[in-house]
C-alpha cells in the first residue's frame, strides 16, 4: 500500500484518527475497492467507527502509535505539507512520512499485525428514523451535559427530538439531576420520524464524532430504530465517508417497563405528552420483527462504562442468556446491545451473528469479503 | 528603590552582592535547570554560574553575566556554595510570581562567605521580605572535558523547529539517537519506541538551520530520561547549538533572552549511552 495525503487533508486524516482513538485502542486499516478504511471498535464492542478514505489493502497497527504521529494537531495543520503512507509487507511495517515546513521531514515506522476484517453489521437505510443536521446543532446540544455523563437518551416525536441524560432506575432519584433539551424539527435539515422511539447510548463516543464533524463542517446524518438497535451517525462528502455505530440500551422485552416520568408539562409539551407516553410504551414491545423468537440481545458484551455496567457486572455470563429470568423486586434490567460483526473475531464465543431486525446478515466467515 | 537604602556598611561583610530589578531574570533561567534539588553556585567577576548535575552523566549550567545584574559586587576571585534550588525558587517567587507587566519582584542576593546562609532581600510594591537559605559545601562539578577543539560536528538551529520535535518525541523510547553527517540525513533525531521507530530529519539547507558544520558522520544515543529536563531550557530559548565531540559527548547550548531582552545561556552536557560508530 502506498498513498499520499496532502494539504488540508492531512488535518482531516489526523482528526479522523483522533476520533477513532476515542472509540478504541487499535486502528484497523483496510484498503478496499472504494478506498482505505480506518476502523476502530471498543473493547466491549458497543461502539464502532469507520472512516472510508482513498486506496488499497489490509492490516492492523497499534493506534497509540498512530496517535503519536498526529498528537500535536495544531502544529500539524500549520507545518505539514504532505503525508505519505506506505506499507512494507516483508518487514510488516507501516510508514508515515510527513513532509513539513522548512524542509523538516518526520518519518514514523510503525509495526503492525495482520488481522481479520472488522465490519459492523448495520443497515442504516432500513431504520425508521432518519435525521440530518449541521454538526453545530449537536455540539451545542451536547455541551449542556456534563463531560462526565455516560449515557444520553434521545427520543423523538413527529416534531421534536429530546436529549436527556440517562439515570439508572436504582439511582437515588432525589439526588439525581435530570437535564433535558428539546430540539424542534425545523432545526434539522431533514427530520424523518416513522417510530416514536427513544434510544440510550454512550455520549463519550458521540463526542469523538462531533469533534471531527465540527472541524470539517460536514452535516451529520443520524439513523436509529428501536432500543437495542444501534444508532448510526454518519457524514459524507466526495472524498470520505464516516460512520459511527453505537450500541443502545435495549429494554428487556419480558419485563414491564416503567416509562420514565414524562417531562414537566409546559406549553410546548402539552400536545405531545400523549404521543410521548405512547412512544415510551411502544419501546418495550418485543423487539425484532420477522426474525422468529426474540434473540436476547448480546447482553454479555456490556458497555464498558461503569454506570451502565454497574447493574450487570455482577451477573455471570450464562445468566445473561436468559432474559426471561425474573429478578423479583429488582427493576427491569437494561442491557446494552453489542453490535454484530460480520467476521469471526477471536475469543468471541458468545457472539452470534443473528440479526436483530430484518437487517442483512453478513457472512461470519472472515474469508468472505464483506461489503 | 527601598533595597538600596540598606546601610552601605553592611555590604562590606558580604563577599558577594548581586541585585536585579526583576527577579524573574534569574528565576526563569533557574527553572530551566531544575531537575535536582541542589545546585552549585559559582560566582566570579564575570558573573554567576549555577550548575545542576545528575549521576555524573548529565550537567546543566545557567550563566548570568555580571552585566545582567543592576549591581554585582564580588570581593574574592571566586565564591562558591551549594543551596537547595527548589527552596531558592520558592523564595524568588514569594510574592506569587504574578506576570502583570510593570510589576516585578526586586532582588538583592547577599553572601557573607563560607558557613553563612545565602540572604535574599525581595521587594515588591513596598513590601520587603528577607529569606535566609542555608548553604552547603559546594561539590566539585564534573568536568566533562568538552572543548571546542575536539568538536567534530556542530549545528545551530532555531529553537522553534526543535521544540516541535521534542514535544512529539516518543517517550516509550529509552534513548534519543542523534545522527549528524555531512551527507543525508544531515541532522536526524531518532526514537525507538514500543510501536516502532521515528525519525526527524533537518536538512542542512533548511531555513531553520543557522549553522551547519559537520565533518564526520556520527551517530550517538543518549538516555531519554537524561535529556528530558533539557526541554525546559529549549522552551525558553530562541536558538540552540548542538555539538558532539570525538567521544560522542553532547553539548546543547541554549540562547535565552530574558524579560529585558538581554542574552543569557544555558548549557547541557550529556554523555552517550553507547558507542555507535556509523549507520
Could you characterize the architecture of this molecule?
The complex is a heterodimer of chains A (371) and B (279). Chain A has helices at 8-21, 63-69, 73-79, 135-142, 203-216, 270-282, 306-310, 317-320, and strands at residues 2-6, 26-32, 35-41, 47-52, 59-62, 80-88, 93-100, 105-113, 129-133, 151-156, 160-165, 180-184, 190-192, 198-202, 220-224, 231-236, 241-246, 249-251, 334-336. Chain A has a 13-stranded antiparallel sheet with strand order 1-6-7-8-5-2-3-4-17-16-15-9-13. In chain A, strands 12-11-10-14 form a 4-stranded antiparallel sheet. In chain A, strands 18-19 form a two-stranded antiparallel sheet. In chain A, a hairpin with a 6-residue loop joins strand 15 (220-224) and strand 16 (231-236). In chain A, helix 1 packs antiparallel against helix 2 (63-69), helix 1 (8-21) runs antiparallel to helix 5 (203-216) and helix 4 packs across helix 5. The model of chain A is unreliable at 55-64, 253-272, 281-338 and 342-371 (pLDDT under 50). Chain A has 371 residues and is an alpha+beta fold. Chain B is mainly β. Chain B has helices spanning 8-11, 24-31, 85-92, 159-168, 224-227, 230-236, and strands at residues 16-20, 38-44, 47-54, 58-65, 71-74, 79-84, 106-111, 118-124, 127-133, 151-158, 175-180, 187-193, 196-202, 209-214, 218-223, 237-245, 250-257, 263-270, 274-276. In chain B, the strands form 3 sheets. Chain B has a 9-stranded antiparallel sheet with strand order 6-2-3-4-18-17-16-10-14. In chain B, a hairpin with a 3-residue loop joins strand 3 (47-54) and strand 4. The radius of gyration of chain B is 20 Å and the shape is elongated. The A-B interface holds A 61-62, 64-65, 68-69, 71-72, 75, 79, 93, 102-111 and B 161, 164-165, 167-168, 170, 193-203, 205-208.
Amino acid at each position: 500500500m502506498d498513498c499520499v495525503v496532502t494539504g488540508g487533508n492531512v488535518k482531516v486524516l489526523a482528526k479522523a484518527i483522533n476520533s477513532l482513538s476515542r472509540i478504541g485502542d487499535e486502528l484497523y486499516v483496510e484498503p478496499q475497492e472504494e478506498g482505505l478504511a480506518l476502523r476502530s471498535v471498543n473493547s466491549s464492542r458497543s461502539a464502532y467507527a469507520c472512516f472510508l478514505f482513498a486506496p488499497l489493502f489490509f492490516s492492523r497497527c497499534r493506534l497509540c502509535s498512530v496517535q503519536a504521529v498526529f498528537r500535536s494537531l495544531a502544529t500539524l495543520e500549520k507545518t505539514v505539507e504532505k503525508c505519505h503512507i506506505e506499507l512494507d509487507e516483508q518487514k510488516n511495517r507501516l510508514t508515515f512520512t510527513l513532509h513539513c515546513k522548512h524542509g523538516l521531514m518526520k518519518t514514523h515506522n510503525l509495526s503492525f499485525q495482520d488481522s481479520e476484517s472488522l465490519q459492523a453489521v448495520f443497515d442504516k437505510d432500513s431504520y425508521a428514523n432518519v435525521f440530518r443536521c449541521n454538526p453545530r446543532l449537536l455540539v451545542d446540544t451536547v455541551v449542556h451535559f456534563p463531560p462526565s455523563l455516560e449515557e444520553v437518551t434521545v427520543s423523538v416525536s413527529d416534531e421534536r427530538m429530546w436529549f436527556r441524560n440517562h439515570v439508572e432506575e436504582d439511582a437515588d432519584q432525589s439526588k439525581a439531576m435530570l437535564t433535558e433539551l428539546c430540539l424542534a424539527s425545523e432545526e434539522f435539515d431533514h427530520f424523518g420520524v416513522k417510530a416514536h422511539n427513544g434510544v440510550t447510548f454512550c455520549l463519550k463516543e458521540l463526542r469523538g464524532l462531533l469533534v471531527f464533524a465540527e472541524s470539517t463542517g460536514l452535516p451529520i446524518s443520524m439513523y436509529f430504530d428501536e432500543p437495542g438497535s444501534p444508532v448510526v451517525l454518519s457524514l459524507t462528502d466526495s472524498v470520505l465517508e464516516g460512520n459511527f455505530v453505537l450500541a443502545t440500551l435495549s429494554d428487556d422485552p419480558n419485563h414491564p417497563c416503567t416509562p420514565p416520568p414524562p417531562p414537566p408539562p409546559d406549553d410546548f409539551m402539552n400536545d405531545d405528552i400523549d404521543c410521548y407516553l405512547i412512544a415510551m410504551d411502544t419501546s418495550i414491545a418485543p423487539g425484532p420483527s420477522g426474525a422468529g423468537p426474540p434473540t436476547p440481545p448480546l447482553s454479555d458484551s456490556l458497555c464498558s462504562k461503569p454506570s451502565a455496567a454497574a447493574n450487570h457486572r455482577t451477573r455471570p455470563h450464562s445468566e445473561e442468556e436468559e432474559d426471561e429470568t425474573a429478578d423479583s423486586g429488582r427493576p427491569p434490567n437494561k442491557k446494552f446491545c453489542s453490535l454484530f460483526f460480520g467476521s469471526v473475531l477471536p475469543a468471541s464465543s458468545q457472539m452470534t451473528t443473528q440479526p436483530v431486525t430484518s437487517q442483512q446478515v453478513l457472512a461470519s466467515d472472515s474469508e468472505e469479503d464483506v461489503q | 528603590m527601598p533595597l538600596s537604602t540598606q546601610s552601605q556598611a553592611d555590604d562590606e561583610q558580604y563577599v558577594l552582592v548581586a541585585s536585579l530589578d526583576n527577579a524573574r531574570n534569574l528565576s526563569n533561567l533557574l527553572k530551566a535547570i531544575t531537575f535536582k534539588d541542589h545546585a552549585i553556585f559559582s560566582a566570579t567577576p564575570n558573573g554567576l554560574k549555577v550548575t545542576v548535575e545528575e549521576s555524573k552523566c548529565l550537567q546543566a549550567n545557567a550563566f548570568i553575566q555580571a552585566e545582567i545584574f543592576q549591581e554585582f559586587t564580588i570581593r574574592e576571585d571566586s565564591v562558591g556554595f551549594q543551596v537547595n534550588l527548589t527552596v531558592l525558587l520558592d523564595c524568588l517567587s514569594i510574592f506569587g510570581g504574578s506576570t502583570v507587566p510593570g510589576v516585578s519582584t526586586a532582588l538583592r542576593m547577599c553572601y557573607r562567605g563560607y558557613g553563612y546562609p545565602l540572604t535574599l532581600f525581595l521587594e515588591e510594591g513596598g513590601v520587603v521580605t528577607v529569606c535566609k537559605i542555608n548553604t552547603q559545601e559546594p561539590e566539585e562539578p564534573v568536568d566533562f572535558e568538552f572543548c571546542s577543539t575536539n568538536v567534530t560536528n556542530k549545528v545551530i538551529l532555531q529553537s522553534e523547529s526543535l521544540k516541535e520535535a521534542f514535544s512529539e518525541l516518543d517517550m516509550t523510547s529509552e534513548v534519543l539517537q542523534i545522527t549528524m553527517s555531512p551527507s543525508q540525513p544531515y541532522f536526524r533525531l531518532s526514537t525507538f519506541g514500543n510501536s516502532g521507530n521515528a525519525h526527524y530529519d533537518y536538512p542542512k539547507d533548511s531555513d531553520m538551520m543557522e549553522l551547519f558544520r559537520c565533518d564526520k558522520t556520527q551517530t550517538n544515543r543518549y538516555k531519554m530520561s537524561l535529556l528530558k529536563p533539557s526541554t525546559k531550557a529549549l522552551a525558553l530559548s530562541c536558538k540552540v547549538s548542538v555539538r558532539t565531540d570525538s567521544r560522542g559527548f553532547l553539548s546543547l547550548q541554549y540562547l535565552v533572552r530574558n524579560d529585558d531582552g538581554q542574552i543569557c545561556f544555558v548549557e547541557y552536557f550529556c554523555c552517550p549511552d553507547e558507542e555507535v560508530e556509523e549507520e
